[in-house]
Design brief:
Elements (H helix, E strand, L loop, with lengths): L3 H15 L9 E3 L8 E3 L1 H9 L3 H13 L4 E4 L9 E3 L7 E7 L3 E6 L1 H13 L13 E5 L14 H17 L2 E5 L7 H13 L22 H15 L3 H15 L3 H24 L10 H17 L3 E4 L2 E4 L13 E4 L7 H15 L4 E7 L3 H13 L9 E6 L2 E2 L16 H17 L8 H21 L7 E2 L2 H4 L7 H20 L6 H4 L9 H11 L1 H10 L3 H21 L8 H24 L9
Parallel strand pairs: 7-8, 7-12, 12-13, 14-15
Antiparallel strand pairs: 1-2, 2-6, 3-4, 4-5, 5-6, 9-10, 10-11
Length: 617
């Protein structure tokens, strides 16, 4: 199903071409003056330069051709003398009004019947009319990036929920979208844990060099013990150089395949990944691949040799580097360090080898990395090496979606009251409690305490995720639990409250004998009876355009902005319209069909954000 913009442009293209102008000038955009019109075409302004004519003359001719009749002078339009122009003199199947205004804009209003018919077609179409991509892509989304043996904290929030929404959007649009958590499971933290474990439990068989039997199947630690071991080892390494060196050597032995340390590593992985899956699930985040840096290890040696053989990698002060600077760079891009002088691999080595593995397994048409924006230089270097070496084709998009930090009200990175890093599960518990308190303070509430708790979990997650996703990813934002949990304003709870309100209306309609059937009701949508109803239809009609541009621009905040505007449009319609007491049964059925469609659009969009709606609030 074509986007409503495309259908309008189709009409404008024909009119421009019929007047002797190129169709490329017929671009239609949302009006920046909604008090004057709903959409506008500014192509006459650009065409005037190409054809050496006055913009208003071109606009007037196009309007005349568009309407199939001579345009009558409309006089000064709202907005002053500069808006004087021409108005259509006859009916048009798509536009109820087309006006040429000074200095050469074409102001457009959509026909009520055309819009109602578009609603009916949306309701009947698969995915509400979303067009399948001409060429479905394989898209690799790298997000999550948690380290094993460490609990998830607020610093992991943004990567998880932004990446999850990007993955869901791509998949819904029809692309083969693969989400990979890309765990940090192969660095120095492994050696630190191994040596701290040796100090605490020296009698374990893993540290007995004479042991030749099978290693135990049960881990020598629980997840809570493991989460305590790592920070203790990390702190010790900062004051004890001998311990730090032992950890470094243990890491090298692990990476070279030393069996006892590999066995400990397997325990670390099994205990950590089980806990990570549980915590990510609490965020409604799921990964297709649970791979990590360790999975790239088998590809590193051959990859480095390839870089050497191609003359790209060379020694510099004992280390191996690849030059990635280009003449067009506006800032210095230093060489990419591939291997340290002691032979150790680095993050760049692992990330490049991971790309080699992904090319071998999936041949992605597009890569999207959802990572802290402070890693921008690192990934710029990695992407350049990947393309320079031919690991990835030159025309393959490699997108770095760098996100900002979540800050407290003091403008600094979010911390606990004691100044430490807050665990993610603690943050979720706090926001759920805040939502529960808001539900319980409503004197007219009809839900039990038990249901209020369940609802608070759903609404709390929406508050948390929407509060983040509604911001442009690259920007820092302030985490404000009071604002995020409010049931009004641009918040997750407000969006859910709107959906629940529609559900309530549909339930009452059903209780009064009405039949709520999407197939039946949405076929009966009539042209809008008032401005607020038409405004709601116009917002609904933008659905497929918003979803496509949101994914193309890796911008979940665009979906948030859209559903906020749609919620506002519905609530304005709701307050101005007596939906259930409308005496005209056909009109009432039309209202019900329209709000059912609005609910479906809202539910689809929040699903792409990883949010669900309760039945009651």
């Amino acid at each position: 199903m074509k986007k409503i913009l495309d259908l309008m442009e189709q009409e404008l293209r024909q009119a421009f071409e019929a007047c002797g102008y190129e169709a490329k000038f017929a671009k239609v955009v949302l009006s920046n003056r909604p008090d004057l019109c709903e959409y506008q075409c500014n192509g006459a302004m650009a065409a005037a330069k190409a054809y050496k004519k006055k913009p208003i003359d071109i606009a007037t001719a196009v309007v005349e051709k568009l309407t199939g009749a001579g345009a009558d002078a409309a006089g000064a339009q709202t907005g002053g003398a500069d808006a004087a122009g021409m108005q259509s003199g006859s009916a048009h199947p798509v536009f109820s009004e087309a006006v040429a205004v000074m200095p050469g804009f074409i102001n457009l209003k959509v026909s009520g019947q055309f819009l109602a018919d578009y609603m009916v077609r949306m309701a009947a179409a698969d995915k509400l009319g979303l067009e399948a991509p001409e060429k479905p892509e394989t898209v690799m989304v790298d997000y999550g990036g948690a380290n094993v043996a460490k609990p998830l904290h607020v610093g992991h929030l943004r990567a998880a929920i932004i990446g999850e929404s990007i993955k869901r959007m791509g998949r819904f649009l029809g692309h083969r979208t693969i989400g990979d958590v890309h765990l940090g499971d192969w660095g120095l933290q492994m050696g630190l844990i191994i040596e701290e474990l040796r100090d605490r439990k020296p009698g374990l068989v893993y540290f007995d060099e004479s042991f030749t039997g099978e290693f135990p199947a049960e881990a020598p630690f629980t997840i809570s013990e493991l989460e305590e071991i790592y920070p203790a080892a990390s702190a010790k390494s900062k004051t004890d150089e001998a311990f730090k060196e032992r950890a470094h050597q243990a890491t090298l032995k692990l990476q070279k395949g030393y069996a006892p340390f590999r066995a400990i590593w397997q325990h670390i992985m099994s205990v950590s990944v089980e806990d990570l899956k549980k915590n990510y699930s609490n965020l409604n985040v799921e990964f297709d691949l649970w791979k990590g840096e360790s999975d790239a290890e088998p590809y590193i040696a051959d990859m480095i040799q390839m870089l050497v053989d191609k003359g790209l990698a060379y020694e510099s002060q004992g280390a191996l580097v690849v030059d990635v600077a280009e003449e067009t760079d506006s800032k210095e891009i230093p060489p990419c360090l591939i291997r340290k002088s002691d032979g150790a691999s680095l993050y760049a080595t692992s990330d490049l080898a991971t790309i080699v593995e992904r090319e071998q397994d999936f041949h992605p048409d597009r890569y999207i990395y959802v990572v802290d924006k402070r890693q921008g230089m690192h990934f710029e270097q990695v992407f350049r090496v990947a393309k320079k070496a031919g690991i990835v084709k030159q025309d393959t998009p490699m997108i770095f979606l760098g996100f900002g930090t979540m800050n407290g009200k003091d403008g600094k990175p979010f911390k606990t009251r004691e100044g430490g890093v807050m665990r993610l599960e603690t943050l979720i518990a706090e926001i759920n409690e805040a939502v529960y308190a808001r539900i319980m303070e409503d004197e007219e509430r009809t839900v039990s305490e038990e249901e209020a708790r369940r609802t608070a979990g759903i609404v709390g997650l929406a508050a948390l995720k929407y509060g983040d996703l509604s911001n442009q990813a690259v920007k820092d934002y302030v985490f404000d639990i009071e604002r995020f949990t409010a049931f009004s304003g641009n918040t997750g709870p407000y969006i859910l409250y709107t959906i629940v309100r529609i559900k309530s209306i549909l339930n009452k309609y059903r209780e009064n004998g009405g039949i709520v059937s999407e197939d039946a009701l949405e076929k009966n949508i009539l042209p809008a009876a008032n401005d607020s109803e038409k405004a709601l239809m116009l917002l609904i009609s933008r659905y497929n355009e918003v979803l496509e541009s949101g994914f193309a621009e890796t911008a979940p905040h665009k979906i948030c902005q859209y559903i906020y505007e749609l919620s506002n449009a519905f609530n304005s319609f709701y307050h101005e319209t007596k939906i259930l007491t409308e005496p005209d049964e056909a009109r009432k059925d039309s209202f019900i069909g329209l709000i059912t469609l609005a609910k479906r659009v809202l539910e689809t969009c929040i699903g792409l954000l990883g949010i669900e709606a309760p039945d009651r609030m």
